[in-house]
Write a structure and sequence with these properties.
heterotrimer, A alpha+beta, B mainly alpha, C alpha/beta, B: mainly alpha, 14 helices, C: alpha/beta, Beta Polymerase, domain 2, two-stranded parallel sheet, 7 strands
Amino acid sequence: MAEMWINMGPQHPMTHGLWNLRVKVDGETILDAEPVIGYLHRGWEKMTENRVYPQIIPMSDRLCYGSSMTWSHLYCMTIENLMGVEVPERAEYIRVIVLELQRIASHLMWLAAFGTDLGLLTVFVYCMRERELFLDLLQSVTGARMTYNYPRIGGVRNDLPPDFGRDCLRTLDHFEKKLDEYEEIFDGSAIFLMRTQDIGILKAADGMNLGVTGATLRGSGVKIDLRKHDPYSVYHELDWDLCTHPDCDCYARYRVRMDEMRMSCQIVRDALKKIPAGPIRVKVPRNAPKRTAFARVEDPRGEGLMYVIGDGTDKPYRLKVRSPIFVTVSAVPIMLIGYKIADVPAIMGSVDMCLGETDR
Amino acid sequence: MDLYQFTEGIVSWLVGIVNWILNWVGFHGLAGWLGSPDIIKFLTLLGESIVLLAIGFIVAITMIWQERKTLGRLMDRRGAMVVGPAGYFQNIADGLKTLLKEYIIPEKADKTAYNWAPVIMIGSSILLLVAIPLSGRFYMSDLNAGLLFIFAVFSITPFAILMGGWASNNKYSLIGGMRSAAQLISYEIPLLLSMVGVVLLSGSLNIGDIVNAQAESTWFIIPQLIGFIIFMVAIVAEVERIPFDLPEAEAELVEGWWTEYGGMRFGLLMLAEYFRGYAGAAVAVLLFLGGWSGPFLPPEIWFLIKVFIVFFILIWLRGSLMRVRVDQILNIGWKRLLPLAMVNLVIAVVFKTLGWF
Amino acid sequence: MQGEMPTVGLSEEAVVEAIKKSFTDGVTVGVVGPRRISARVARSVVYKLCEHLKSALSFEHVSCLSGVDKVDHMEVVYHISSYANECVIEITVDVPSDDPEVDSITPLWGGANWHERETHELFGIRFKNHPKLERLLLPFDYEYFPFRKEFKLRGR
């Protein structure tokens, strides 16, 4: 069969979000790939130049709606760096707890989509069932299930509800048992191992050069996690380990994310033990000084970075967002070339795309 | 009293009434022609085929209902609940909805092939019902090589698939069609070989003889356990269910070679899938699980119960396994099932010469 | 190679000293906080500085590359991070508005590829030696550079 370019998307049941993956195939083998994005571009960064700093917090939630707490937290961190504001310790602990719960919810959504791509529809329903528990927890704290609008510049919006510690621990106990069940479903299935091992190899040197970060890079054996190497908030005071895996294939990335879910449970437990009493918010000035600032976080999908230029008024002069999936998608052709079309869902599923932050 | 005599009785009675009316009106010649044995025979066969089609239809609809509910329970949800008792009429509602949809034919599609592909598919699937008896007295045709006929009709499907995939003028459909045809053709050989073991043990290709042989000795699943497993795996591949449903995988190919078919054409293709699933499960029951033999209940009911149990296993596989990649499917078919089927054949020969079964 | 273990290397002050030794003019650099270095670099020196950072000081990863439109001139801001030394350097380059051109760093780090494409189509800054400077986010026939300050959004 002659070579031909196939468009996977933009209308496609599999692609997580609205984008187009053009692959050049010869029979079933992929010779080249070219991602085409931009269908969801909203001009986010330009919109922020017309809004006051607190008004941008709900906007930052919508950058990636799958893990929205991370982005509003990143934004608040950036503005706190800009204004030189120090956040009280209780607020930092609350932020960490809520962020790790969000990380578990985001990884559960990834697992649901990954299983569906491979053909296992049952896992979708199971993971969504577990995710409901975490969304309930987050709803009891913030009042919303998806775009929370919870961190504020200088702290968080409100305190944890009174029974939160007990509910949280109960949910985590239940979830860890379920996580064992999911590992059995996936690791015990010979078909899963056949479909993900030695597929989508991304060597560590290639990954670092192309700017890939997060679980995708840790699946190639690189021991980098921004929560350990560029610590922010109170991560350096909590007791947890990095998760990594030496094979560079889809199975390794899957393994890293499952381990990260367990590690998040450990972090939440530790934070609930160590959380101090105190204020949850400080007052911040209205106008920002004339300087620049940036902040980096470890988003569930990789490294997120925001860079802000303040100009003495109450609106930012320039706010730049660096999204992890934006760079990972540009590195996707390396992971695809040489494999078959049937491997595309497995590889793209292991990369965990979310289009909102790619196109902004 | 078997199905033929039963239908003949009903047809004769109906023809008698019509003839009485015709005689009363005055058309004696027409009444005579209508009452002649050839016409009665023709009408009886027509009646039988309508009965079998109705039974096949009802069983297929029940199987779809069974699948929805079982898959729902596997996924910790309830399945269709609202329409009809326990959601039984949901499928009829879905069928009506499918009838109301618009047929969109792609502009550059090859019209003849595009129109004929689903016809061949559903036609061959319904043709299978002819040769599958429900019991010793409920059958339409007692072919001497009934088993061979069933598998021959099973093999017509790759034609329809290739025609449909090509005629849709769509790269996805083409790829899906080729994959589908490759998968079906490769799995027919283990299917036939596992059947040959049973034929050796029972000594005939006639389905009635096979079931009677099982009633005399034991169900053939016991000496032919490997054959049964190979048969089940091959049937899952032939009917294109998960774990072997990559040709229709939603994840990459939208719906594979079905992509460009809309409305009732698509509905017929789905129905054809379930007819073939029924045929596959029925053959598994007839060859390995003793057919219609069983105490107390009438044999037709036993047969249907066993068919539904076998189909439950197929649904269970669908709910718990993932898709296998297409080159891995072909690997399994040629490199693993084929040697295993040969081993099974050797075992069958050994058992036959020893005279145990 | 697989399983790279980045070791703790130089401190930020040592990195700053190394840069100052190799680049005497065109580069102003200093430590601005724990794990943070900031530099202002002239346009002609950027590519050589980045080469030096990659080969000698093990800065393996381009975090971000953004454009800024200060009305009388434009700026390109690079954030390049080092896993081995655990620090991030922020490089600001001034680019004149009438000749917005800068050397591309994509030949050094593939991670800058799409960032440069995006900056080009939103600001109009050209990157020399970029392998494929094409449209990324905006429609194919879009005529403006929307993130420039002269492009005003409706309603505000």
